[in-house]
Amino acid sequence: MxxxxxxxxxxxxxxxxxxxxARFCILQDADAEPVQLTxxxxxxxxxxxxxxxIAILDKTSLKPVSTxxxxxxxxxxxxxxxxxxxxxxxxxxxxxxxxxxxxxxxNDFEAQALAIATLGDDNRDTIGPQRPDMMASRVxxxxxxxxxxxxxxxxxxxxxxxxxxxxxxxxxxxxxxxYQVFPHLETIEGRIAGEQILxxxxxxxxxxxxxxxxxxxxxxxxxxEITATGLSGENREAKETLSLFSTYLGRIAGDLALIxxxxxxxxxxxxxxxxxIPALKLPEFRAAFEDKAPHSALMRSIPTYVVTHPQAALAGxxxxxxxxxxxxxxxxxxxxxx
Length: 338
Prior knowledge:
The protein is of the alpha/beta class. The protein contains twelve helices and 14 strands.
C-alpha cells in the first residue's frame, strides 16, 4: 500500500487562506505551471466553499479533484476556524459540496517552510554576505500581523517542515539602550515575547517605547507610517525604531539558526520584511545575527534572505504537490478523502 504522502490526485486546487485575502491557483499536473491564479477578499464571501465555487470553479473548465490549503489557524478537528477571518474550513463538506475526492489542510507557516526549500535568487534578496546554497536545514520567520516561525529540517534526503509558535519566545534587553527602552514596552502578563516587538503592532509598541524613553509625544500610530518615515529618515524616533527592530529581528533569527543548525539559511518572509529591506541591509541586522559567541564564526557562514516571491505560500504548496515524496509532511488528521 502506498504511503499516505505518495499519491496526490490532479488537477489540484492550491489555496493560501489568510485573514484578509485568500489566494488560489490550479495545477493541472506535476509538470504544469499554475493557472487560474486568483485572489479574493475573505469578507466578500460567506464561506470558503462559496469563494472557491464562484471565484474559481464557475470560471474554468479545468475542474480540480483535490485541494491543498494552507490556513492561518490550528488544525485540530474537521472544523477548522481561521485566525482573523469568519470562514470555517469544513473538509468533509468540501468533499461533497465541491465534488472533490481529496482535501489536505496544513498550517500557513508550513507552506512558507515548503517554499524556502527551492527559492532561487530571483525570488529572494540576500541580506549580508553571499553564500552558496547548501542542502541543509533552514528557518523562516515572518513578521507581519504576528511573528510566524517554522523550521525546515533536511534529513534522509527529504525536507521536514516543523511549524511551531516560535514567535512567542522571550526576547530581552542587552545593550544600554535596550535597558532604557524595554521598561516602556507593553508586555503580556509581564513577558516581552518576540511578537511584542517583531510584527506590525510590535513595531508601534517599540516606537511608542522609544518616544516615552526620550520624552517625545508619538506622532504615528500606524506601522506603515513608522516604516516610511523611518526609512526616509524624516523622523528620528521612527528611524531608531527600524534600527532596533532590525537588531532584535537579527538576534531572534540568530537564535533560531542555532536551534535548527540552519546552515541552509534563514529566510525573512511577511510583508514587513519586504518593506524594510533597505533597513535590513544596514549593519544592525547581520551584526546582531552573527553576535553569538562562542559561535560567531559559524553564524558568519549562515546566509540570510528576504523572501520576495509575491505568492510564496502558493509556490511552496505547488512544490509539495509536484514532488510529495521529497517532503516529510505529516498528514495524519489533516487529510480527508471521499
